[in-house]
Every structure is written in structure tokens, then in C-alpha cells.
Fold this sequence. Notes:
Blueprint: H1 9-15, E1 20-27, E2 38-45, E3 59-66, E4 72-78, E5 89-96, E6 102-108, E7 121-122, E8 131-137
Parallel strand pairs: 1-8
Antiparallel strand pairs: 1-4, 2-3, 2-5, 5-6, 5-7, 6-8
Amino acid sequence: MPGFCSAQALPDRIAHPTRFVSITGTVGRLDRFYGRDVMLQAKYVFHPADKPDHWIRSIPIGAPAHLAADGRFSLTVPDLTGELPESAELRIHAIDAATGEPIAQLVVADAVALHTAMGGLRIAGEYPPLMLFTPCTTTPPRAKDSFGFALRPGSEDACDR
Length: 161
């Protein structure tokens, strides 16, 4: 990892980036937001070089973006390609605009090569022009059928990870 020395070196690179990457997408399953006004926030999550067995708390990056009524969004984040450990990932979180409470993590549903095991995006210098995301709610609804049995997500659901 050229130039990546410690967790302390990263915030300066985020605060003074030289290059940016655009992430544009559309969110399916908008019903999972229950009519809330939603803001999206990108965060980098990584293992610091000096403590590989601990996850550092995620670092919010870029300006939050509004999620349009049709599910489209666009985020701009610093390009830290080659600056972060291989375990690093980019996560996009949906936040209730009124309360600031987290609602969901957006998991990429169509660009499987960019998907990490924890549902984030691999760090890249560019992303496809329009990606499809699924919101994986932090507190999924307790849906039950008419007999009281829990309804499980289908195998195609990106949240079933």
C-alpha cells in the first residue's frame, strides 16, 4: 500500500483529496423506507495498519445526498485508490433526514464484482455509470403471514448475506 502509514494519515487525504469518484445509482425496494425523507451518506470502513485486528469506525466522506422520489441518487467521494488497505470498503448509508437516525445500508445488487462480503463497494477509481442498490434496513420489519409464520427474503434479495 503505497503511502498508507497509519490511521492518522488517512483523514488528511480525505480532507484534501486530489481526485474524486462519482457513484450514481438507483435504489430498488423503496417501500423499505416507509415514506421517509432519506439522505445518503458515503463512508469508508477499513482496518488501520497499526491495528489489523480492529475495525476503525467508519469515516463519513463527501457531502450527503438526497434520495430522489424515483430512487435515483448521485454521490461524489474522494478517490483513495491505492491509499487504503485491501480490506477497505465504501459503504452507503440511508439516513432519516428529519432525525439523523440510520435506516439502512445500500447494497449493490447488480455489479457483483464490486460487492464486498459485508455489503459495501470495493474501492475503485471509477464505478459503472448507473448501479442498482437494495436497502438493507438496520431493523427489518417483522413480516408475518396470516398464520403467524415469519416471511423470509427470497434468495435473490441482496440483503440476505
